[in-house]
Amino acid sequence: MIKKQMIISGEFADKEEKIDVIYPYNLQKIGEVPKGSIEDVDKAVEKAKIGLEKLKRLSAYEKYDVLLKVANLLKDKKEEFAKTIVLETGKTIREARVEVDRAVNTITLSAEEAKRISGEYVHIDGSPNGKGKKGFYFREPAGIVAAITPFNFPVNLTAHKIAPSIAAGCPFILKPSEKTPLSPIMLCELFLEAGVPKEAVSVIPGFADVGQRMTTHPDVRVVSFTGSLKVGEIIAKQAGLKKIVMELGSNSAVIVDKSADLEKAAKKCVIGGFALAGQVCISVQRVLVHQDVADQFEELMKQEALKLKFGDPMEEDTDVGPVISINEVDRIHTWIAEAVQKGATVKVGGMSCAEDKTVFQPTIISDIPEDTKLFYEEAFAPVVAVKRFKDIDEAINLVNKTNYGLQVGIFSNDYKNIIKVIHNVDVGGVIINDIPTFRADNMPYGGVKGSGIGREGPKFAIEDYTEIKVVVFDVDA
After folding, report:
1. At 177, which CATH number?
2. Would residue 53 show up in a list of annotated catalytic residues for this protein?
3. What is the pTM of this model?
4. In terms of residue numbers, what domain contains 432?
5. Is 269 a catalytic residue?
6. Which among 170, 188, 269, 281 is annotated as catalytic?
7. 321 half-sphere exposure, CB direction, 13 A CA radius
């Protein structure tokens, strides 16, 4: 049993009321944390004001140094964190180790960016009334950051919010997913151990009331949220005059052109579709394949999917673990049934495992109709839907025929088609000859339309966590 306390301004606090943490694979309780409240948020915000002043007094090197210490502490505890991630999320142990490695990199990148926050000389005299004036601008911490994270990457997505926050000089208040609060608390313990001012670090596990107070509190300046479109829209309406960064998911598409390397595309699509049981914002959900090569491609993809081992995520050779809950299994069954009723065909999988109730078989569905949830909503499941197209214009139209726009992948050796896709798809990222599931932690990551606002990646997050201050000198005075 893993028991953790919440952190309010660097101080550990317990509560009588608890949140149970359930292992998705066997549905057994594996840990617990205190259930936070609105009052806890208010306490954290008041102390965070002290944290803001302390962070402002740190030099760029001092922020770099403390974050590098966090990264090294995390690296030393890789296996402990990986096993905790498995118990919370159900992702495989191999996937969990990769997540820890990525979080180490994310924090290291944030440390490096702490030394690169800069400004620019401005030619004030480039304006008619600017004669005799010289100026520049620089960036200052925006203020207190409210960070809300999802269950699927509890360490790395937390790192993507709180490490750039400290690099920018901003205290943070974190609300992790109520399903996965253990590893985020463990990570924040490392921030304190490394020497981050204690008033700058708060972690409050809780539910919607905690999140609402964090995002609407008048003294919170930045809201960084990763989660569903529905909740994102609520936050945007309620937050008021704050800086908002949101990554709200997708139903990412892959275009497989007739000139593509089909074997490579099939292998990549299976990896991208079934990693973390499909519970990734940029998971391969829709594969749009040219009609001339569709039969061959579907067979290649089917054979790749059949190689996957699904089941116990702690076993070293497991490829696909459970989804997060029984409710999700029921929802996935419903969405597949709708697609089949409307004319789709299940090629592989299509059902959960009787012996492992939360493990859903890797599933490939062919001829997916456009009016099904598996086409236009976010599945967040180990399900890949395939649809055929006749030319690149139709493929682009199908990519855009959704409210989401995070990333898209295209497999093609046709230069003109690639360029056409780059310029015409409504997404935040286009990945050429690879899947949309690709993400490097230093790249600008985010989407358009219902997929969010702003960009993550330490350098780009810091832009949202800082404000520009301009300075103008009258040199003729």
Report:
1. 3.40.605.10
2. no
3. 0.97
4. 253-440
5. no
6. 281
7. 27
